[in-house]
Amino acid sequence: MRIEIVEFVEGARKAEGLAVIIDVFRAFSVECYAYDAGAVQIIATSEVEEAFRLKNQYSNSILVGERDEKKIPGFDIGNSPTEIIKTNLSGKTVIHTTTAGTQGLINAEKADTIITGSFVNAGAVVRYIRHLDPEVVYLVAMGYRASVTSEEDILCAELISERLKGGSSINDKTIASLKHTSGKRFFNIENINFSPPTDFFLCTMTDRFSFVLEALRRPDGNVSIIKKDI
Predict the structure, then answer these.
(1) CA 32/CA 76 separation, integer angstroms
(2) Which domain holds residue 46?
(3) Region 47-55: what's the mean pLDDT?
């Protein structure tokens, strides 16, 4: 198995074989928490206007997403796991758009299989990849706003890579240290209304969920996020 770590939308476009699109802070942590909160399906899209169109198409739906980290005007909640766990999503369709993570899903057109990646289900991701045993795996770190390298996404990619190779030097202490680097924005008082400290802790709970999220392209160009227990 060949493992490649790449970044941003360009990396997603390059990905072949099995692609893991990684967005720890916060898109793909949010999607895990959304399914755990009772969502029946998640549809990811890259455009705000398309999200509103899908909202009109699905009667029992909720708009979740951000631009510049903040909740999009007219959306129900932002891209925050803290908000997700406070919301009853039972029976609801979640329509999700973000600056980085969902862009990667839409652009991974060459990959045979696409799954999401985050710390909260990293173990399930590794088990699923081992089960499929692809010739090549692309770990796509989407980064901050899909344009700046982020320590958390690279660290998650390295964690998955090392576990696939049979070991890992990355532990909970290493992940917790992100509080002093890329995660410090969650502890800035100016961001508390849209990026609270609880988001940091919810996004760094390694192996909290035992399922993977597979992305399947829809005829309308958007992506259905399918939960698969592992």
Answers:
(1) 18
(2) 2-229
(3) 98
DSSP 184: G
- Which residues, 6 or more positions from 46, have their beta carbon under 8 angstroms from its beta carbon? 97, 102, 103, 106
Q: Per-residue pLDDT averaged across 96-119, rounded?
A: 98
Q: What is the CA radius of gyration of the chain?
A: 16
The neighbour count for residue 76, using CB atoms within 10 Å, is: 17
Give the separation between CA 7 and CA 149, rounded to whole angstroms.
8
Question: CATH number for the domain including 215?
Answer: 3.90.1560.10
58's tokens:
């699905």
Provide the number of structural domains found in the chain.
1
* Strands, sheet with 18-22, edge to edge from the N-terminal-most edge strand: 2-7, 136-141, 18-22, 113-117, 211-217, 223-229, 41-44, 93-97, 61-67, 70-71
